[in-house]
Structure formats: C-alpha cells, structure tokens
Amino acid sequence: MEIFKVENVNFTFAESSKRALNAVSFTIQQGSFAVLFGASGSGKTTLLQLLKRELTPNGKRDGEIFYKGELLEDIDAKTLVSEIGFVMQKPDDQIVMDTVWHELAFGLENMGLSNAQIRKKIAEMTSYFGMGDWFHKKISELSGGQKQLLNLASILIMQPKVLILDEPTSQLDPIAATEFMQTLHRLHEDTGVTIILVEHRLEDVFQFASDIMLIENGSIIAQGSPRIIGQIVKKINEHHIMLEALPTATRIYYGLSTFTNESPITIREGMEFIGNYKNEIQELPRNIIEQKIDKPILAMKDCWFRYGRDFPDIVKGVSLKIQKGEIFCILGGNGAGKTTLLKLLAGQCKPYKGYVLLHDKKMKKYSMEQLYKKNIALLPQNPKTLFLQSTIREDYEVTAKLIGFDKMEASLQIERVMKMLHIESLMDMHPHSVSGGELQKIAIGKLLLLQPKILLLDEPTKGIDVFAKKQLQQLLQQLRAQGMTIIIVTHDMDFAAEIADCCGLYFDGEVLAIDVPKSFFAQNNYYTTAANKIARQLYPNAVTCEDVIELCIANGLDKK
Amino acid sequence: MIQTSSNRIRRLIIIDTGFRGLHPLVQLIYYTCMAILIMLYNHPYFLIICCFVLIIVNIMLDSWVKLLKWMKSILFLGGGIILLNTFLVTKGETVLWIIGGRAIMLEPLLFSFITMLMLMAILLLFVAFNNTLNGQKFLYIFSSFFQRTAFFTMLAMRFVPLLKMRLHEISDVQRVKGLSISHGSIKERAQSGMLFLQVLLTWSLTDAIDTADAMKARGYGTGEISKYKPYRFIWKHEGIIIGTIVSLFGICIVGLLLGYGRLEIYPKYNMPPLTLVDALLLFCITIISAFPLIIEGREALKWHYLK
C-alpha cells in the first residue's frame, strides 16, 4: 500500500521568488525504508517538512500530497500528530521538558491519555530502548547520543506509522551515530514502521534502506534501490559530485568501470568484490616528499592539564611536535579531550605541568593579543559563537579594526577573503541564518582576516555534505600551499586520510601512533577508513578510495 | 563513625521506598508542619529535641555532608549572636555577673540561645527538605493547581542549564579575542557582557523556534492535556500518614494556644515546672519530627522479617 504519494509538487517560500521544490513526484510504500540525499540547500529539509503538516513553512504549494490515499490537508490534526513522527537534526532543539520521564510523557499528555495508559507506554518504551539506567536523569546530564535516542523514543511512544528523520546523526560522533542507525534498523525490522530518512553519512544506512532518492536543486533526479542508484546517477553525469557521497564499496565499484550489475554496498561485500582483482602490485610508486627538517612551529612538552583541583586529568603528559606548513590531524574517540588539547595548543588553557612552545618560545611568554593577532586562530565546534554583529560584513569590519587595519587595508583584506571562499552572496546576511557549510566558510573567513600562521580546526566536518567537504579540502590545501600550518581535530577518518600530512591518535590523555596517514591507517585494524578495511587483504597500504581504485586498475582482473 | 552508621542504616533501608518514596504532597505537609511548630514553640526543651531528632533524620537521608558545611557557619553565626546579644542588651531582670560596670543578664543570654536553636532546627529541616523534595517534586505538587505556570516553570528549568552552557561556550571563544567579562575596565567588561548576551539571545531564540515547532509536531495545543502522575498516591497508605501528621500537629497547636510550650523570658525569666500536658506535647513533637525515621524504620523491619 502506498503510504505517501507526492504528485508534481512545487514549493516557493513566502518571501522568495526562487522555487525551493520543482515538480517533485514520488511514492513511498508502506513499510519501506527510504533514504534521501543531496547537497545542502537542495531542498531535502523543505520536502520533509511538507510531509508533516505542523512543520510546513509558509509559502505557496502546488501539486498534491496524499497520505494513505487522502489529501494531507483533509486529515484531522490529531491523527496526523500521532501517525507521522518527525525527528530533527539537533538533539537539543527538540527536547521540551527537563527530565527524561517527563519528556517521554509530553506527547502522550498532549493526546490526553489517562495516567495508567501513559505509565504503561513509558514502561514499554524504556524497556525496548534499554533506557533504564538514565531514565531518572535530568536532560542536562545526558550525552548527545542519548538525547537523540530520547527524541526518537518520545516520538515512537506515540506509535507513529511513518517516521521522518532529518539528518538525525549529523551532530553525533561516529559511535553514537552507528548505534542510532542500528536502533532505527531494529525498529524497522520489529515494527514495520515506514522510515523516511535524510542523511549525509550513507556508509551505515545503505545496507538497511530499500529506496534511495537523490535530490538536486529542488528536484529528484535519481531514484532507485541501493544497489543500482549509483548506475542511475552515473548515467546523468559520469563524474557527478554526489557519487562521492555513496558508501565506499559502491564508489570503488563504480570507479572501476561501467558495471551494470548490482553494486556492493557493505564493507564485506566490497571485500568480496575486490577479491576478483590480482594481488601483484601492492603499492603504487609515489613521489616521496623529502623529510622536512625537524623545526617545529608548535610543540608540546610533557603537558598535563585538568579543569580544576578536584577534577581528573584530561591531558596526561602529551609531547607533540608540529612542523611548519603541515596539516596535522588528531583523531580519537568522543569525550577523550581532543578539544581540550586544541585549546592548550591555542593558548586558551594553561597546562599545570609542562609547557607549550610557539616559534621556540614558551606560550606563557606571549600576551593574548600577540597570540591571536597574526599567529594562531581556532575554529570552534560551533562557529555561531564566533560572530557578535548582526551581519557578516559588519563582523568582518569589526575584526579588521581589531587587528589594526585602516579602512583601505581592511576592505582589501575582506575582498581577498571573500574571493578565496566564494562568499560574496552571503555578506549581508545574519550569521545565524546561513546553512552549516556556509557557516563554516564565513567562520574560516573571519579567522583568515586575523592572518594566522597556524589554523586550528575543531571538528570541521560535522554535519556538512560531501560537496562542502570537498570545498573545505581544497581550501585547506590552498592555505597549506600558502605556508599555513593547520591542525585538525576530527572523527572523520576519510577526511583525515585525504588531507593530512601526519595523523595522531588521542587516547587516555596521550597522543599515540603519530605517523603519515598511510602507515597510520594501514597499521590499525579497526580504527581505519572504510577503504582500508575493504582492501586490506590485498593492498594493506591503500587508505583512500582513490588508492584502491588505482591499485585495482593497475593490477587488472584476476582471471581465475 | 557517622559514615559507617549511615552506611549500616543504608543497608537496611531501600532508599526509594520509605520516606523518599512517599508522595511529594505528604512530604510537603511534613515539612510545613515542622516549620510552623519550630517557629512557634520557643521552649528550649522542645527545640533541643527537635534539633536532635532532625540531625538523626539528616544522617539517615545521607545529607550530613552538606549539613557539616552549613553547621560551621551556623555555629559561628549563632555564637556571634549570643555574644552580641548578651553584651549589648540590658533589658531583663535576672543578673548573672557584673563585668566592668555592665550587668550581664540571663534573659538576653537565654533569648539568643533559643534563637540560635531555632535557626539550627530550621537549617536542619531545610537541608533535609532540599535533599528529599527537590525542585521537580515541588513543582509537581503545584502543577495540579497551577498547571500552566508549573508547565512554564518546567520549560524554564530545561533551558537554564542549556543557556548557561551556551554562554560559557561563547565567552570561551571570545576570550581569545580579548573580549572578556573578567578583565578590562568596567565599561569594556559591560560591553563584552552585553555582546555575549546578544549572541546568546539570537542563538537561543532561533533554536527556540525549532523547539516550538517540535512541540507543535507532538500535538501541543491540539486538545485536552492530561497530566502524567509519576508519583502514586494511595489513599489507604498516604492518607493514614497525612492523617496522623495532621492530628499530631493539631494537638501541638492546641497545646500552644493553651499556653504550654512557650517560655516567658521578658520581662522576667520564669521557668514553670513541667506538667503532664507539657510531657504529652513533648512526646507529640518528638513523634512528628521523627516521622521520616518511623517510616524508614517500618520498612526496615518489614524487610528484616521477610527474610
């Protein structure tokens, strides 16, 4: 049975002239698991919001949306509220009450259920999700993953028939994201609820999905099952940027030739597929970069740090050397203290033992001003906190004044930064009203005005799509070519593998295993890129998707 | 020593049944009655017994650590009051000593001593209150009567820790650029503070729109709102407890009105001998203040005999 049918829908926002959605038509079968992906700004969120009447933005809509055969606007509010559930992107934005149990009861209270009924449903939900441990906690004590799980639970407790999720894992770390996806899959298998999901991280989701749709500029340009969607996209454009969003196994498959069979979508299937190739050439010759002279621009010597006398040590005797002009990536689990490490490197926190050397001089000998003017700049996890004025242009002008540029010099510098980042169109907007990828660009722009020699980035790839990631990559490589030293703290192993000159693993207060990405990832069994996991039997040193594709082409098929 | 006996008691008691597991309304009635009695009764015997029993209650509730922190300051304060009062006030008629031309009277000494006892008792009650009837439970009681106000208070309570954390993030990031609320001239600090609050406001308002949407998406405002009662109120069980407390309270109040339980200090100290009625009232007040102990004791006995 068709649970959702969208026929020729166009949508324009209230104060805009450009169409956000263009002739969108698709159907969703009951019990299916549909995944929607596309670049940011392509209209994914708008489309999802149109399916949930309470969240539909103001604007003009043509075309028809049918829910279970009836027009969406004809159905009564109560049914819609309980039958269609919506999980948003940011965990904190959805939570209303201050304790877990009350949050679960909120939706049911609104529906007017009796006390006994509410009690029964809460008991049921808590048991199913295994929330018994943190059921009595306050919201402020929960982690991001737990909050998002709570959001899911408080929607599910109303027993929806359709579950719509808008990038639910983008703000979570990889472990919490994987757990969330597993929970979603288990839910789908156990209850047959229809799931409509928008995601950037397709690696985990493809194996569970039944339908995939690619949306671009407000129209759905490709639709199909997970195993053939790559083909469909390739037919549109051989080198479509969104092909990079597909899971690694699928990318390798399509990168190798124009296969017309079904593609592998999991790592294991990828391994089986790679097994078809010969094993003769294990490593392609690469121009070996001369070992740089050991003249570190930033160094930590045996630093220890904690937030207070009664708190545990976060950084335990870390010694680190970062060379000038290199991109250094610090990887590691969530909550390990990587942000604290970055703050120590930036001089924002002071270690109680050991010291940090900047340009061979101890960090504490620099004044705050000397540090942030033309020296070090730190991009925080939440770039919104950087902006204090009401338009981006004003903020840039204030920053330029802070640095000490006169009016002429200031406008020149601002022009330069604008050109480098392609943000001319955003300059008169409010910093909080731009999308995730754009926010990051304008934040980096603001930091570039300070003309830093060292740029520190805290989780720059959180929640941004493949296209923005590529742009970020190109930008960072451009900056490195200009001589800037870049230190990145990230979970994103694929990004680190592509861009880093040197990687380190942060664990239990120490930085271990500092090495070039090739050796770093090749030596790890579990904490490594998907491409490495797929190819390690045959080509142990292949770290990125491109490496694997090249090696396979060089080796040729194994005609067994 | 207190730690081990507290642990021993803990092992006998299951924390969420017993006193802590009672319906918040019952707990509130206990605390209110106790507070009123402490403030009205002014005979030192009563107050000393109250204090003693409340200390035991606090040990049982495991809040004696917090108590110790407060005790130091209260004893200091109390001692100060006693000294000041005794040396400065010259009303009263019974003279104890004469020091350097000043007559030290008994009345002010006694009065300040009783005041200190009263303060201590209220403090002990307050620490126990803080421990058992926390903000949520308290709000829950009032949500039955003032539903909308309670709801908005709960919403506010959700946002307070969130906004605090956000403000912390903002000031952390801005400190690097020299904008701080702890360094600089008063004018600079005020300006920085205002800028931070502005960003916090914009950020929180835009996110709050999403929260409002999420509330609407879960049906807020589409119909009658029922109320989820996480605490059970069984008339047989809770009713008896309320009845007992209220009747004991009544007896104590009647005794007060009849003139017992209060000590006349000014103009002249007059300690009448204890009568039978006094003894009865003393007994009642002991029972009321020891209520939490009785409830817990009963639970402990039950478990002991079940084995």
Structure description:
The complex is a heterodimer of chains A (560) and B (307). Chain A has a 6-stranded mixed β-sheet, sandwiched between helices. By secondary structure, chain A is of the alpha/beta class. Chain A is globular and about 70 Å long. The longest helix of chain A is centred in the N-terminal third of the chain and has 18 residues, at 174-191. Among the domains of chain A are: 2-94 and 160-238, P-loop containing nucleotide triphosphate hydrolases (Rossmann fold), CATH 3.40.50; 325-338 and 366-552, 3-Layer(aba) Sandwich (Rossmann fold). In chain A, helix 14 (392-403) crosses helix 15. Chain A starts with a strand and ends in a 5-residue tail after the last helix. Chain A contains 21 helices and 20 strands. The two termini of chain B are 28 Å apart. In chain B, helix 6 runs antiparallel to helix 7. Chain B has helices spanning 2-12, 24-40, 44-60, 64-88, 106-132, 135-143, 147-175, 186-217, 235-257, 276-289, 291-306; strands at residues 95-99, 102-105. Chain B folds into 2 domains: 2-139 and 233-306, no CATH class; 146-217, no CATH class. Chain B has a two-stranded antiparallel ribbon. Chain B is mostly helical and 307 residues long. The radius of gyration of chain B is 26 Å and the shape is flat. At the A-B interface, helix 2, helix 3, helix 4, helix 5 and helix 13 of A face helix 7 and helix 8 of B.
Gross morphology of chain B is flat
Give the number of DSSP strands of chain B. 2
Report the major sheet of chain A.
6 strands, mixed
Report helical residue fraction of chain B.
over 70%
- Strand fraction of chain A equals 15-25%
Instruction: For the largest sheet of chain B, list the strands in their spatial order.
Output: 1-2
Our count of helices of chain B gives 11
Quaternary organization: heterodimer
- CATH domain class name of the domain at 325-338 and 366-552 in chain A: Alpha Beta
Mean pLDDT of chain B: 81
Tell me the distance between the termini of chain B.
28 Å
Q: Could you give a short account of the major beta sheet of chain B?
A: 2 strands, antiparallel
